[in-house]
Amino acid sequence: MDTKTAIIERRSVKHYDPNHSMSETEIRELLELALLSPTSFNMQNWRFVVVTDPAKREALKAAAWNQAQVTDASITILLCARMDAHADGERYWVNAPQPAQDVLVPMLKGYYEGKANLQHDEAMRSIGIASQTLMLAAKSMGYDSCPMVGFDFEKAAEIIQLPENHVIGMMLTVGKALKPAAPRGGQLPYEEVVKMESF
Amino acid sequence: MDTKTAIIERRSVKHYDPNHSMSETEIRELLELALLSPTSFNMQNWRFVVVTDPAKREALKAAAWNQAQVTDASITILLCARMDAHADGERYWVNAPQPAQDVLVPMLKGYYEGKANLQHDEAMRSIGIASQTLMLAAKSMGYDSCPMVGFDFEKAAEIIQLPENHVIGMMLTVGKALKPAAPRGGQLPYEEVVKMESF
Questions:
Q1: Is this model's pTM higher than 0.90 or not?
Q2: ipTM
Q3: Which of B7, B170, B187 sits opposite A125 (nearest CB)?
């Protein structure tokens, strides 16, 4: 599917075929595309938990105001991040020439070390970027998706056994649409949202 | 360009043709695609400042450790967000049936009102999502991009006259590549980043 078509046709779909399953190959293809999303200093701070187990998804649904898409879609992904990913800076530049490594690795560590708010912002940014990769890749594979923040983050963390020093940023369902999304609710005028040169 | 190709071939490009300009039509096409990115409760909390003015871009470059792409690319976009976008909840659902509006608008306001950290997280998530729309749309239009957080956010805020109650989340350059990106620096193994069912 053409990129512009995927961007235009991607909508947040709530109604999925509960009998449809994604194959392991499809799930891996989708997630491998997500892993090509950019991250600051290539630190790949995101972690993706793909939930297919019916009992776990029932528990996630209960933690998400019982929204049906959590169990009706084919998979439910928890987009998480490791807050101290910067500490492993060497690993993200191992293939770069040594002089580049010598600059980038200390720069990455220095930029994030000890700055909890910045680490948290980076988690949310990286998760946001990767979520759109997943949504557009899903669309191009014939699937639809629904990004969600309306759930109990602490309960979800228990269900997926989120390790210390990690955060959850979003839940995303992916599956076969039974019913298209309702028309867009009310788009703001271009000129209100896009400014030329300055506010 | 095919969606998967755009995802695979999108890289953070640093070297741009400084003589290339994007037309107003191209800039508008790119930003109109960004405006189709999903936001929580459709609140469209992002604001995009497209900087083409050479003096403003020199100032932004100075605020960004003199990274050449800020002036060499064709445009530099500041991805910002309005923190209290939820307060205008009615506008984002004006086209929905009244019973849906009656549920969604109070839910949106209640979810964000008075929760500064959550508003800030939503700003970063929305900006992350929209940035990937921009990067993939740019790729499909024959352009390359570079997402950046390595700059002085306060100086950038002065340059673009960021209003109160708004934040900057990212700088993004878009232009015609002169030199491709270096090979990926060091990708983490799939199994380390993608977990099935739980951590």
A1: yes
A2: 0.98
A3: B170
